[in-house]
Amino acid sequence: MTIDGDIARFDVIVVGAGFSGLYALHHLRELGLRVRVLEKAHTVGGTWLVNRYPGARCDIESIEYSYSFSEEIQQEWVWTETMSAQPEIEAYLNFVADRLDLRRDIDFETTVVAMSYSDEAAEWTVRTEDGATVAAPFVVAATGILSVPLEPSIPGMDRFTGTSLHTGRWPDGVVDLSGKRVGVVGTGSTGVQLIPVVAREAEHLTVFQRSPAYTLPWRVRTFEPGELDELKASYPQIRAAQREHPVGAARLSAFSVLLEMLAKPPLKTASAEERTKAVETDGIMGALNWGDLFFDIEANQMAAELYGQAVARIVDDPATARALTPSHPFACKRPIIDQGYYETFNRDNVTLVDLRADPIESVCPNGIQTAAGLHELDVIIYATGFDAMTGALNSIDVRGRGGASLREFWTEEGPLSYLGLAVAGFPNLFTIQGPGSPSAAANFVAAMEQNVEWIGACVSYLREHGFRTIEALPEAQQEWVDQATALVAATVLVHPSCSSWYNGGNVPGKKRMYMGYTAGIPEYRRRCDEIADAGYAGFKLA
Ligand code: NA7
């Protein structure tokens, strides 16, 4: 760091101390760069710190949803379950921060409110909420893809006299729900994880469901004695397989199950007996395990019907089972896995409100008013998702070349980006797993590690070759966006009836555009390397 007047100067400023910010700090520091991390929370963890709601858990196996860059760390850390719950991931990230002595380069409780690029100085100036300013030629936005909670705008929300909670801003410490009448709004991944746990604790749970989930029943278990040690001994093979796998997780996960479905026979040509048998034998998996659901909306609708039959085999009350049957296409939203979700609706203390038939009118001081009546509540939990991919950077006033606003650009033009790593007009700003990256449909940790290492190599290249700036070219950016869009053009991911955080349809006013890159991490890595090897093709270096 150098001090110039009131401004502290670094080589790189990293915004965020979650999975990506921590690795960015470590990796760039190892390259000899002076790095400062600015983090708004009081400690490390990012989205795994704030999503402390009961039941929060990763849906990728712990030994794959973890840093691969350090053999010491992967050997020393002890995972207790096949898929980790939030407290263990939070503890892991704290362990990593201590093990690598990362905290000395992190400013906690430091919220970045603005950053602007000076063409003349080829430098970013970053302003924080407390009025401090820091500067560096490079900024790495490690701000997360699911880090800005999405507040619904339901009339009367602020008049509720009970406790209002958002899963993405869960308070520290235990929230005691025993003896309480609890309402949960939202049935995405978060709601599906939360609902069974809350049902066991609350006196009564009312689930307010706008779009029923497609969710695969899953068994998460603690490791058997010696099992983790065996896995750790195989880490070279595990990591190698992961590296070659399209979703960055070669072991069983919701993503890998989806990929396997693609290779299954089509539903459209299956006989009525075959369909019935699939549901009778394999339940929910049997309803969805067909190869044509991703590309053929009619096949997808047929699967939804089978899915309803599979749900009806678990849920005792036929009307509730019908209400739990989705009407949007399967696979257009991120896959969900659950532990006992549908069984929860057989409990006496759980009521489902199907908002498709009985919409919310308002939140009242004592509960939620739907068209059919008032549901009295002591606690309302909003599990209403995130302003994904662009939300975190849009919450900062980012000004690029000539004072151009990133927020305005993304709002007006859509979330355009080159490789998900850079945006034309915003030189020397790297976005980890920005829009157009594999992150949304892959193991975020694996995808993120590739990005951090690419950024490290890029900054080293620029310094070694005497370049001060790198900036995505608009035409390369458009080409990348077109390619990413073409990859999903024939799939249900872009069907007009599909509204999700993948395509921005969950945020009122957000320009709809599929924000992922679905050719897989190995192909993405190959493209990124090819671009770097060609002297950063598609970028202007100056
Ligand atoms: P999601 O998947 O975006 O789900 C949010 C849920 O909240 C979904 O069921 C929404 O219904 C519902 N929602 C949102 N606003 C409202 C209002 N106003 N009224 C009723 N219901 C509403 O977010 P999650 O947190 O569950 O999961 C996000 C990712 O985190 C997940 O994919 C994993 O990657 C981890 P809708 O579908 O919009 O009709």
TrEMBL record:
Domain FAD/NAD(P)-binding residues, every copy: 10-213
Protein name: Putative (Cyclohexanone) monooxygenase
GO molecular function terms listed in the Swiss-Prot or TrEMBL record: oxidoreductase activity, acting on paired donors, with incorporation or reduction of molecular oxygen, NAD(P)H as one donor, and incorporation of one atom of oxygen
SUPFAM superfamilies linked to this entry: FAD/NAD(P)-binding domain
Family named by the database record: Belongs to the FAD-binding monooxygenase family.
Keywords: FAD, Flavoprotein, Monooxygenase, NADP, Oxidoreductase
Gene3D superfamilies given in the database record: FAD/NAD(P)-binding domain (3.50.50.60)
Cofactor list: FAD
Coiled-coil ranges from the UniProt annotation: none
Annotated source species: Mycolicibacterium poriferae
